[in-house]
Fold these 4 entries.
Entry 1:
Amino acid sequence: MSIGRFLIIVATTYLGLLAVTFFIGRVIPIDPVLAIVGDRAPAYVVERTREELGLNLPYWQQFLLYVKGVFQGDFGRSVLTTNPVMEDIRRVFPATVELATLGTLIGALIGVPLGVLAAVKRGSVIDQIVRVIGLIGYSVPIFWLGLLALLVFYARLRWTAGPGRIDVVFEYTFTPITGFYLLDSVLRRDWAAFRDIFAHIVLPASLLGYFSLAYISRMTRSFMLNELSQEYIVAARAKGLSETRIIWAHALRNAAVPLVTVIALSYAGLLEGSVLTETVFAWPGLGLYITDSLQNADMNAVLGGTIVIGSVFIGINLFADLLYRTLDPRTRNA
């Protein structure tokens, strides 16, 4: 793929994202002006605010102003917090990244071995168990599983901390550096805070990790079955190589090329799909921020958060595509 074609694809995709979010902001029956000034404001105040926001202009001019603001990082001000939306996003997004990253690590570290085991033991009881685990991960609503996990592991067994990101005891004594609390607690050598932060994140991260595991294990099984049926595997067995070396050093090595792409897409999915998880666990990330903003008719914050998540998803998809083409020379001319 040429650089010019790649840039055209990126620009077209991103403009499509902006067009969709702009359209959503205009068709939703929520007047952004009334959300700012209130429904009891005088008519002249409403009209003046509408002119200041450019909402009295034709749609094509509004869209151009919208695109210009997005590229300048200006999503307007949040009605809920009165801060610039971009400032709010910088504050809450690290929590979402931290949660999704840990969830992806759990999903990959457990899902890949399970998928390999299911492929090697195809048709056995182990294979059926792994497939059932994946099926449950796809079928059970994440919010229901989150509530059940809180009831069992927090309310009954007391194995984990409750909702939130950090206990109130540390809220005013722990000062973050990067916004990633686990990393910050290590950098500050505050091990008491680290234990508390880990106790809060382990349950929602495990929940996201389980859903990531369901996808990764299924795809790993599929890739491994394809590799184990190849002629080079037959040749390796004929040479007398051990089954362990054939599976882990040869089959998994070749399956790792598309598997890297799967893990990257799973990570992108957790970044954009953690809204329900953050809501159930009161996790102060971008998903909860968007949910609270939507409930308070704060459309600047909703659209700003949507654009950020969409941008990250597009970026990770493009990165995964480039990585796949780099690792597999056969696809470079496709």
Entry 2:
Amino acid sequence: MKVLWLFAHPDRRSLSGSLMTEGLRTLDAHGHRHRISDLYAMKWNPVVDAADYAHDPADRLLVGEASERAYHRGHLSPDIRAEQEKLTWADTVIVQFPLWWYGMPALLKGWFDRVFVKGFAFGLTDPATGRPRRYGDGKLTGKRAMVITTAGARAATLGPRGVNGDLNDLLFPLQHGTLWYTGISVVPPLLIPSADRTTPTTYTTAATRLRDRLLTLPTTPPLPFRHQNGPDYDADLLLHPTPNQPEGPAAHYTAPPPPAHP
């Protein structure tokens, strides 16, 4: 594998930092290559603005148009181009972050906002049908990703009946609406629960789970998201009704996803 490890935690001495170190050591030991984007250490700028696109601030900023134009003309900010080069090189993306307020840290959200611009991460059209190529068919098709997240909550509370909601539902905007949207296949996430109560024993268990998931990542079946341009959606991109079809995010899987923490 050629892995881009996208890391968003402010302290490399944390549980998250220790797990990344263990993960990178595992990749090295088995002959995989990797590059790292440690967003806090890089002091990554998460804010989209006109300077990203060499855009005249006196003119109205239409982000989609300006970013696509800058991408094709080679005018994107150098920090954005550097991250796009890493992503182009990689065939696998690890997205690692602590689960803060049911989502990823703002710094990481800003990475996707600035790097996944139109023209680079999306914006293809099928010439035969005129339909946009997205949700399983896009600019980044062929790559795969895995989310690794630590959470203070106990595992059961991030399951289907837990008070915090099911983890796959919490990650749906990232896994489905960002990664799958651009064509990246997403394997089930790795949840490290009870992070604030980690002991040497539970750390050993977490590290073992991480190593196992990394080494089996190339052959792990991805989350069974539906393809936009398959038979499941009509011309208005609405699911065709079927008996007993679930509502909400669950409707967009062809089968129930496996639990994040078995």
Entry 3:
Amino acid sequence: MYTTTAHPLTQPLARPPLRRRRDRNAVPALWRQVVRSGAKEDDRTVQREPDRSAFSQLEIYDAVLRAFERRAEVLDTIAAASDRDAAVGRVRDLLAVSPAQAGAVVDLPLHRFTTGTRDRVARRADELRQALTR
């Protein structure tokens, strides 16, 4: 039978380095709000927006609506890209949108390319347009 003993530490244990969180774009939070809101709450209720201006949100909604209109081309473009950055660039060229708008389109999950989601996005975009024109 063998016995092992532990020697006392002469130096304190070093703490492992803290993991730094990557700066996350606000677009995924916006998608969670818009896309998932229909499943949990009534579509007519207006939810609190994340810290984004109404103009930026409307730009993203417009890009997503463009993507819905050309969804077959958008999906083929994303599938042909080698990585996310390439997909964002190709979607940007295809739809003639900004990088943030293209990122929102690329980040939209495939199962969200439904008519219900399109209708919610269109309704919210109309609400924003009306609020901005007042």
Entry 4:
Amino acid sequence: MIVLAIDTATADLVTGLVNTDTGESTDNILPGSRGHNENLVPAIQGLLAAADLTFADLDAVVVGVGPGPFTSLRIGMATAAAIAQARGIPVHGVTTHDAIAARISAERVLVATDARRKEIYWATYSGGRRTAGPDVVKPADLTLPHEVDVVSVPAHIDLDVAGERVDLTPRATELVAAADLSVDPAPLTPLYLRRPDAKVPEPAPKSPAIPDVDLT
């Protein structure tokens, strides 16, 4: 089975391919991408071309559902859903932080990503299982359910938590491993964890120059 993996929940644009029969995987990652919308489809096309494959060779799609910023998640999930629908193949959503944590061999792990607004998205893990989160909080207000051995957090975020520091992004192998490809996927549900930055404007008050008209 050839599975396309996508994650746009962090600043890194992540695409990859996994052959579940052979265990082979290939990643195409654009670090610190500020143009997920413009770069995602070309990144997927380049990934397929490098593997001498086309969209017709795909058997499933796995996409990170966050937590992450509203716009970034929408881009990745909408693209994954569109590819799956066009090909008539399943699309599975997985938690981005679970895929990051799976890259760390330590017993107790904290995964934190940039939520902007001086906040972080976070989740903790012990023995490979999530013990808290995902949630969003200011770094100073973070309360952990247990101590951790390794903290995955972007370098620019000041986090007062003891533990070895790493800065990891999800990869195709872990994204696909987080999905149960043997079952029918549930509907994609994004983990926004808070309202988007964009808000519907308040309706403007009616001008006193406009008369009331009874249309009944």
